[in-house]
Design brief:
The complex is a heterodimer.
Chain A lengths: L5 H19 L4 H17 L10 H16 L3 H12 L9 H19 L3 H11 L5 H8 L3 H28 L1 H4 L5
Helix pairs in contact in A: 1-2, 1-3, 2-3, 3-7, 4-5, 5-8, 6-8, 7-8
Chain B lengths: L4 H10 L16 H12 L35 H9 L10 H14 L3 H5 L6 H4 L6 H13 L3 E13 L2 E11 L11 E11 L2 E7 L8 H16 L4 H4 L13 H24 L22 E7 L9 E7 L3 E8 L7 E5 L1 H12 L24 E7 L2 E4 L5 H8 L1 H4 L5 E8 L4 E7 L17 H8 L2 E3 L1 H7 L1 H4 L8 E6 H13 L16 E4 L14 E6 L12
Antiparallel strand pairs in B: 1-2, 2-3, 3-4, 5-6, 5-9, 6-7, 7-8, 8-11, 9-10, 12-14, 12-16, 13-14, 15-16
The chains are: A mainly alpha, B alpha+beta.
């Protein structure tokens, strides 16, 4: 690398897989490599700002999020992701009907997630998927820890409300009453 | 079937498209390949340095009626380009077009320095494409954005193309607007501008972003306009033209915008805090939260389980008081984020007490179980105690079934047993402030306070000290594990706890992140190391814990 940059190289080597996973959770497989490359390119350009130690990871997530939002210019891509994830089955399940139900539930919860405000979605994803602390989420999103706390609890409540609303609509739909499948 | 919040969160967790990063197929990509790519691409790029010291506010050029889907494309004609070139502007030998673009953004959008920003332009601002404001109004616009809490949060510029007509640089940027950071919203963006640079000067700015996609309108503009309409209808004529889609920026309107925005943010924040109090409180309660009453309560029964089995309560605590309060907290697997409170009728209290006694697991004539592995009265992963007459008696045999029974209170208790089933945050009347660390003096005195700022030291020096021996006297078995510990606790009011937290934060003492996973209610400060130095060994710490109605800090598990 031109000029060398020990800090960037250290961060790159240490967190590459985490950033890859982060992007993989938010976009389709075809777009992941570009997103990761753009994230680290952006990080390289701002390597003087990379926080010390473990705080570099949430900081990288923040950079990656902005890269991805740059990519998310259409809802179509998000819809594709939802459909793709919705097709996943639980690895610990054995009965086909359980897999179908789980796939439906995964799709439904992701649809519910998509109905929330973007920053609420991201707080939930960072909490549940990346398992970040609230302090680290604050670093990733550039907001205060207090704001993360408030938003997390509000977002959790809204997610459950939206999920149950979607479920109740399904139950009440004529197709469901006639035995229409998922 | 309706799912609870925790069930939906669990579902979201299982819907993780890439649950285990360590097993990911990285599409055959090798890190060295990527590093080589950065190396190649970076030859045409420069490192970015935003001067954060003086760039917290940014004027944002927004010549559109917000809420409309409008992609503003402003093209400067070749005539202007030629005119600019004729002016023979001189660029620095070392300044790249990307440098020029970033300098312009940082000055104009980051520091609101309009006059300085204009020195980067190769023509009249309007001719360059810098919005539609008249020359005199650029300063007014800058003031507006500064007063209404705009901030340039991130900026990324890169060269797109170079030709004899100039170098085109694309800048992508994110901002906070209308105090959106105080509302917990993430920065708005990406916004994209393309700048044409000729001889070190910006000769054209073309906006290529869609204001509708960055959620500014949905998240702030529209809710705020609605709020103005409902609460300050007379201000509409001052602030908007027309209401509610266009703003009016004048000397008269700017202070009104600032004042109303600050009021709006305060109101929304207060609403969200109120919403938060319906669940557990992480840390100290918000100002104005009503403490649980009565301040003191007689313990009727308690359960503490630290090994969660499937279907059981998990890692958590549950306390039942004679006044009907059921106060509980679950740290794992579904953290409640702090202590919760529900209310039982007197009949409900007696129902639980008699249910526990009826198990036959309690023998008043037997001594309580000894501490086990550092846990008080631990029997097979937890303990249960219950009031029998005037004394508390303890379980001393295997209690899986009892754990499960108590964990399922909500499913088998009749409706008439509940006075209020809604789980609200338990708001303590008092807090325990405990210092812990290997170097804290083991024999009392005030030496252990020396690492605190003076105001915090004074506050605790005047507070009642909670001697562990006193607690041991109340509950010998439960507190035996604390005997000889270097834990020093003080009993303080909520107001003092809040004041203490402010003093510590003002003193630059770092809060330990992540610790709330213990029970979700405490706040721990690092006294001997900074957060940056923290590597798992916190050294001396100060933790603020809720006090439970029976007079013990929440951390004791007793």
């Amino acid at each position: 690398m031109a000029g060398g940059d020990a800090r960037f190289r250290e961060v790159h080597d240490r967190f590459y897989r985490d950033v890859y996973a982060y992007c993989r959770r938010r976009t389709d497989a075809d777009s992941v490599d570009d997103a990761v490359a753009d994230t680290f390119m952006s990080a390289w350009r701002k390597s003087d700002e990379i926080p010390p130690g473990d705080q570099a990871l949430p900081w990288l997530y923040g950079v990656a999020y902005r890269v991805l939002t740059h990519q998310w210019r259409s809802d179509i891509r998000r819809g594709r992701l939802t459909q793709k994830v919705a097709s996943l089955g639980g690895t610990s399940m054995s009965l086909p009907e359980e897999i179908v139900i789980a796939g439906h539930e995964y799709g439904q919860v992701l649809t519910a997630l998509g109905a929330l405000r973007q920053n609420d979605q991201e707080i939930l994803r960072l909490t549940v998927w990346e398992e970040l602390s609230q302090a680290d989420i604050a670093i990733a999103l550039g907001i205060s820890v207090g704001a993360v706390r408030q938003r997390f609890y509000a977002a959790k409540k809204k997610l459950a409300s939206e999920y149950n609303r979607l479920e109740s609509r399904k139950i009440q739909s004529p197709a469901a009453q006639k035995g229409g499948g998922w | 079937m309706v799912k609870t919040e925790e069930q939906v969160i669990t579902l979201l967790s299982r819907a993780n498209p890439a649950p285990d990063a360590s097993t990911l197929d990285l599409n055959g990509a090798f890190r060295t390949t990527h590093l080589a790519e950065y190396d190649a691409r970076s030859k045409n790029m420069t490192k970015l340095k935003i001067d954060k010291s003086n760039s917290t506010l940014v004027p944002r050029r927004r010549p559109v009626i917000v809420g409309a889907v409008a992609v503003a494309v402003v093209v400067i004609g070749a005539l202007i380009l030629l005119q600019i070139r004729d002016q023979a502007l001189v660029a620095s030998d070392t300044t790249t077009p990307v440098d020029t673009a970033e300098a312009f953004f940082e000055t104009y959008h980051g520091r609101f320095d309009v006059d300085q920003a204009f020195t980067y332009l190769g023509a009249d601002p309007g001719a360059v494409g810098l919005g539609t404001a008249g020359a005199a109004n650029y300063h007014l616009l800058a003031r507006f954005f500064e007063e209404t809490g705009s901030q340039l949060v991130d900026l990324q510029c890169e060269e797109l193309s170079a030709s004899p007509e100039g170098t085109v640089v694309s800048c992508t940027w994110w901002t906070h607007d209308f105090f959106s950071d105080d509302l917990g919203l993430r920065p708005f963006g990406p916004k994209v501008d393309e700048l044409t640079i000729v001889d070190g000067k910006v000769v054209s700015i073309v906006t290529r972003h869609d204001y509708a996609v960055n959620e500014f309108s949905d998240q702030i503009w529209e809710p705020f306009a609605d709020w103005i309409g409902e609460n300050h209808p007379d201000d509409r004529a001052v602030m908007y033209d027309p209401y509610p889609t266009g703003w009016r920026i004048t000397e008269e309107s700017i202070p009104v915008w600032e004042q109303r925005l600050r009021e709006y943010v305060a109101e929304v924040t207060a609403e969200e805090t109120a919403e938060e109090t319906t669940i557990g409180l992480p840390g100290l309660p918000p100002v104005g939260a009503t403490p649980s009453t009565p301040e003191n309560g007689e313990l009727v029964a308690s359960m503490w389980e630290h090994i969660g089995a499937p279907g059981s309560f998990g890692n958590g605590w549950l306390y039942l008081y004679a006044d009907g309060r059921l106060i509980w907290d679950q740290a794992d697997p579904n953290p409640t984020g702090g202590w919760l409170e529900q209310r039982l009728t007197p009949e409900g209290v007696e129902l639980i007490r008699s249910e526990i006694i009826a198990t036959g697991l309690f023998d008043p004539d037997q001594p309580p179980p000894a501490p086990n592995g550092g846990f008080p009265r631990e029997v097979n992963g937890g303990h249960v105690q219950v009031r029998n007459g005037d004394q508390l008696v303890y379980v001393n045999r295997v209690v899986h079934e009892l754990f499960e029974r108590l964990a399922e209170l909500w499913s088998w208790m009749p409706a008439g047993a509940w006075q209020d089933t809604e789980a609200k945050a338990y708001v303590p009347s008092r807090y325990a402030v405990c210092m812990h660390g290997a170097t804290v003096a083991p024999t009392g005195g005030s030496d252990h306070l020396s690492s605190l700022p003076a105001a915090a030291r004074d506050l605790l020096a005047g507070a009642r000290q909670l001697h562990m021996d006193e607690l041991i006297g109340v509950d010998p078995a439960g507190f035996a594990w604390l005997k000889g510990s270097t834990e020093y606790c003080y009993d303080i009011t909520t107001e003092d706890a809040r004041s203490l937290a402010t003093t510590l934060e003002d003193g630059g003492i770092d809060e330990l992140p992540g610790r709330p996973t213990y029970d979700g209610s405490e706040v721990t400060y690092l006294l001997s190391v900074s957060l940056e130095e923290y590597n798992g060994n916190p050294g001396i710490t100060l933790t603020v814990w809720p006090m439970l109605p029976h007079g013990v800090p929440a951390f004791t598990g007793a």
